[in-house]
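Margin note from the TA: students keep mixing up input and output lines. Inputs are the sequences; the output is the structure of the whole complex. Example:
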Amino acid sequence: MSKVNAQLKAKKPGIEIIEEKCISCGACTVLCPTGALCLDKNIWELRFFAEKCSSCLICKNTCPLGAIEKL
Amino acid sequence: MKTFEEINEKIKSGCAVVLTAQEVKELARKEGIKEVAKRVDVVTTATFGAMCSSGAFLNFGHTDPPIKMSKVWLNDVPAYGGIAAVDAYIGATEQSESEGMNYGGAHVIEDLVAGKKIKLRAISYGTDCYPRKEFTGFIDKYSINQAILFNPRNAYQNYNAATNTSDKILYTYMGVLLPNCGNVNYSTTGELSPLMNDPYLRTIGVGTRIFLGGAIGYVAWEGTQHNPTQERAESGVPIGGGATLALIGDLKKMSPEFLRAAVIKGYGVTLYVGVGVPIPIIDEEMARFVSVMDEEIFTNILDYAVPSRSRPVLRRVNYAELKSGSIMLMGKKVPTAPLSSISMSLKIAEILKNWIKEGKFLLQQPIQALPMDTRLMPLNEEKEDL
């Protein structure tokens, strides 16, 4: 299991990131009201902090690649 | 001074020094530009961003009896059929007649590349030589004669960043813009991007061999809205807008990893295109150009709340600031997002570097330079004379 989805399992947030679809464009990071999504500046990949997720689904509703799903 | 031929000889003999754009900047920081000129032969640059001005020419083969397709749909997405009998052009931003902006031309292209079956529907008025009036069937990339990706405008040299001063959310091609300057989106990979590293197009022109969508492609021409007379920073890189490229390649050989359909909420369908361009270090000037850093590349933040083609500039900013994740705007800290995928761009630059190091990819010297004197013209309303 990837690190991202391992974190998801631990906290049971409202979303799941489909890693094969995510290109880490960062569109979701500026819309997330709780800072649960950010780009890792070393490798420019998306990071998800499940404990911060409020399950508002703004990210799911706006992801251009359809890479975020509701759990 | 090195020629393309000399660099290609080094590639063939396996001794060319090839660095990615990220690696060459590190070398320039540590050792300086003269060392870059002395040691490096090729620098691989890349971008992976939403490029709406993309599409593909397809030739389906002739039916029996033959048809001159005048209107064409692919998975219910209209394609342009006004070219000969069984050719069509599917544009990336065209939307499905049944699913609207949830599925469009970019999805058809991605599905074709992935080897999926596509439903083809065509109608015709019928002629003596092409008597058939309708056709419905399935095609895939193996069954059709040609699938040529031809993108009229890709790889924008630079582009403005976007924000929104209004009190409403705006849904734009620059993504969702939150009210009261709630975010700033930009759309380039900055110092990694191809035309940032050759600002005056000294080594890139008609015929340049490139990485396109996971396969080998070529620069076909200047891109539409090519604007090399844009204002430039001291580094030589235009501030906003600038040069563009028209790109061509064999869609059948490409990969769905590097051609991705996307739906930008409230705006529509687009295609993320992976483009990698090798830049030969023919002299010290090119070494200086490929050593350009994000700190030296600027763009303007425009207010998309103003519905004008000349949107007000709220601030000038460099890419080091934008890539830091937040900037100061109108007296507050505002989060920023690249929209282009920097991680995928790094991957493309690495793949292209390996192709060159393995001798699978030789540099092609441009057969014609791209124009450097054209200006962007607006479209003004002109009343018909009565």
